[in-house]
Amino acid sequence: MDTIMHISHLKKKYSKHEVLKDISFDVKKGEIFGILGMNGAGKTTILECLEGFLKYDEGQIAIYGQIGIQLQSSALPAYMKVKEAIALFAKWKHTQLDEDNLQTLGIDDIANQIYKSLSTGQQRRLHLALALMGHPDLLFLDEPTAGVDVAGRRALHEMIMQCQKQGMTIVLTSHDMNEVESLCDRIAILRQGEMAFIGTVEELTQQFGRYYYIKVHSEKGEKVYTTQHIEQTLMQICQDYQKQNLKIFNMSVNRGTLEQHFLAVARRNEI
Amino acid sequence: MKALGYGVYLQFLMDIRSRSLLITCYLVPLLFFLMMGSVFTSIMPKSQETLMASMTVMGVSMGAYIGLPPSIAEIYGTDIKKMYMANHIPAYFAVLSLFLSAFIHLMIMSTLIYILSPLLFNAICPIHPVFYFMMLILFVLVSLSIACILGLVVSNQAKLTMVSQIIFLPSIILSGIMFPTSLLPSFLQTIGQCFPATWGYLLLIEKPLHLSNILILLIFLIVALGICYVLLRSIRSSFCHFK
Question: Given CB atoms, is B19 within the 8 Å cutoff of chain A?
Fold first, then answer.
């Protein structure tokens, strides 16, 4: 598979705080690539550097093709109608919107509504439709389904998969692990500006499938521990809680979900 | 060019839909014109000579300084700017379409005052209508250019209302449209000369007609457009699309 985007040794500082620390990765043509991380891990910063909204301090970004962008927070003039927005953007991009895309995203039904009357889901669908104009080779989606209801989410997922079938490459950020699992071919997990993991969802599961997740519900609240050595860890937890005079109400052990694997990488909460 | 033309047409429609520009460009200036027209002409018959010019200067100043800047700040101070730039719409588009649309609205409003003044209040028409409209165009362009600077610099709507009033109120009080500037103390006359409304009013009443008055408005226009250009360049350079 050819590379459509190459990032090497990317660094970005906000005054003295280093937000991106030597990030390098490639995105292959035709894949859906997810960028994950806790809040403040650097997801939006890296995406804004890739989109060209933010100047980076060091490193290189090479993108081979046209890009389309759906921003996390974007808006249009309150009194602009949906069909007018489509016509305006089409004129500036010297293109027309694919009728199939309009139908898949359910834009037909809201064509005569003004922007401020649209729900969050409808606004997201419109933003995606506008980003898709001109058939970009690479599409950036920053939390595309945040605040969207189930039906809207499904429509957006269908559209994203349809874009991939048409040969588009998609780079997205998301907090929804189900979304990541069902859409992404590969993921990158950022931890405090560093690349903590890069690979497929299966590779993440294989790597962390060896781990046990121990959920302890005590007087102090709920805490999750990740370990490979179940017996020693259980003993150690019990001893620690006894030392602190804390009552344990409930304790459960499982082999982990994708969300737990992600948290293990993103928080590095192994003991 | 097609895209820009469509954008101006769209902006014109949105201005009418939003009603905010409708109020500041038509409703308030025309109501003020009807009210002050009847008051001025009944207590000071001589005001028939200057009514058309004074009400036009008031209407243009209101539409430009109070009406336009919030619409510009709504785009450049919010995510709309980012959305436009992410979709290859140039940084100048929004301000230019708003400028041109407001220009059309203000010219319509001024033409209404031009037509209604003699009919309703026996106001005296300008001797040279073509010259009057040329000067009106110049004055509207200057006022809108200054309004654009306000909208581009001040993104906070609350602050913008305050700053707009700082330009609008002296434009009305110190320009001579309400009472002769000769009644003002000299330092207030000097302050009044810092506002385009003073020069616009002098040109619209056609006396005294000096080329220097036109030149001063032209300087206002060139400087304001230059500042707008610099502001738009800095907005564009903040979006560092890599090659």
Answer: no
